[in-house]
Write a structure and sequence with these properties.
This protein folds into two domains: 179 residues; 153 residues, Beta Polymerase, domain 2. The protein has 400 residues and is of the alpha+beta class. Strands 2, 5, 6, 7, 8 and 9 form a six-stranded mixed sheet that branches. It has a two-stranded antiparallel ribbon with strand order 1-14. A two-stranded antiparallel ribbon has the order 3-4. Strand 10 and strand 11 form a beta hairpin. Helix 1 crosses helix 7. It contains 14 helices and 14 strands.
């Protein structure tokens, strides 16, 4: 018995769509962050040479949002927002910048009630919604950092137990890089998806032109959503959570390995299969990939440390902690990659529908797949080359 690939791919699409932020919730999030942005822009900040620049970053910017899991429960969406103050870095301090943004938020009677305690790098506004699905808006204070590699580079504030310093970042540059990796696939699906979104949500979008580009999802973006959800399910215990692969590594590697596949199954299979090739580096740092063009993505340095570079700032190493605790994060990452291959690629070799359905429910969460498992059950077909054997009262593969 084999699973129909197109229906399996559609199953994954449906699950990713359910995990995504709904169009109405997306519009609410945009309205809220734009309002916060206007309030921050109108503030007065010492030594500021103009108005602050406010823009989204992270999964909200990249179109890879998934509703997170915390302690096994569906949690609020996380929306990240940069507040870039046009102040010369050498004329201020990270503590001052962080404090100025926090004080401005506290000046607003509504935001003061939503404001959480100061975070390591951001200020968080917690929005609760009547439908039980809220979101956290993380505001990241920063200043321009023109001495870094790119004109779009910034320095963000970093609070380590009351000691403040700067951390280099470049969310605008990273977003532009990701868009370039995703552009060809986006152009193939944009109009088709916008028409579908408008038909599904006419209350929010009166015409196709009203549907924002940010709601269109390519096979790359859907693959990243599935990868992140699988990560959240597999590392959903206190023991494992500290070694869970971080989203920026998942996103960066997936974007590098994406080859323009249009259907989700093909894109996910290619990404996971290529990632699995790197697993040999754990025990043999001199291992060389058969595809030399990919060897730069995950590297071991001569001292045994790991390197996964930021594509818009090679000096930033996303895997700078992988060597710690006897390479615990690296080992956890490749165990997870092995589970990805077993759960999403090798599952196609399963001979029983119920085994497939059970594997997918365990990999993505029973609630996430509950409404779509019927598609898997109906996609199983007997291989035509197999001998015809009659089994009395056999379970029909098309039955639920």
């Amino acid at each position: 018995m084999a699973i129909d690939r197109s229906k399996y791919s559609r199953f994954l699409e449906n699950v990713a769509d359910d995990l995504d932020i709904p169009p109405g919730k997306y519009r609410d999030a945009v309205d809220r962050y734009q309002a916060v942005g206007r309030w921050l822009e109108d503030g007065q900040y010492p030594d500021c040479a103009g108005r602050p620049s406010i823009y989204p970053l992270g999964s909200f910017r990249l179109g890879t949002v998934v509703r997170p899991l915390r302690d096994g429960i569906e949690a609020d969406y996380d929306i990240d927002l940069v507040c870039e103050l046009p102040i010369q870095k050498d004329r201020t301090s990270p503590h001052s910048v962080k404090a100025m943004v926090g004080e401005r938020l506290r000046e607003h009677h509504r935001y003061r009630t939503l404001l959480d305690e100061e975070g390591k790098r951001c200020w968080t506004l917690k929005y609760a919604e009547q439908d039980g699905i809220g979101f956290h808006l993380d505001v990241l204070p920063s200043v321009p950092d023109p001495r870094a590699h790119f004109d779009t580079s910034i320095a963000i504030t970093n609070n380590q137990g009351g000691v403040y310093d700067w951390t280099a970042s470049n969310p605008r540059g990273y977003g532009q890089w990701f868009d370039a990796r995703n552009r060809a696939a986006f152009e193939m699906v944009v109009m088709e998806q916008k028409r579908a979104i408008q038909a599904r949500a006419p209350r929010f979008y009166a015409s196709v032109d009203d549907v924002p580009d940010q709601l269109v999802r390519t096979a790359l973006q859907r693959s990243i959503q599935i990868l992140k959800r699988h990560r959240d399910v597999k590392f959903n215990t206190a023991r494992d959570n500290g070694h869970a692969p971080i989203s920026i590594i998942i996103t960066t590697l997936a974007a590098h390995l994406y080859r323009g596949e249009r259907d989700l199954y093909s894109a996910l299979t290619s990404i996971v299969s290529n990632l699995n090739e790197f697993a040999a580096l754990v025990d043999n740092q001199w291992f060389t990939l058969s595809d030399a063009a990919l060897s730069h993505l995950i590297q071991r340095t001569p001292d045994g440390r790991w390197y996964i570079g930021n594509p818009v700032n090679p000096e930033e190493n996303f895997a700078d902690r992988w060597h710690e605790e006897n390479h615990a994060r690296a080992r956890a990452f490749f165990r997870w990659v092995g589970a990805l291959k077993e759960d999403f690629v090798d599952v196609m070799l399963q001979s029983r529908v119920e085994a497939v359905r059970g594997k997918l429910a365990a990999s993505l969460g029973a609630a996430a797949v509950a409404g779509h498992l019927g598609l898997i059950a109906s996609s199983a077909t007997l291989a035509s080359s197999a001998p015809r054997i009659h089994i009395a009262e056999a379970v029909k593969p098309w039955m639920r």
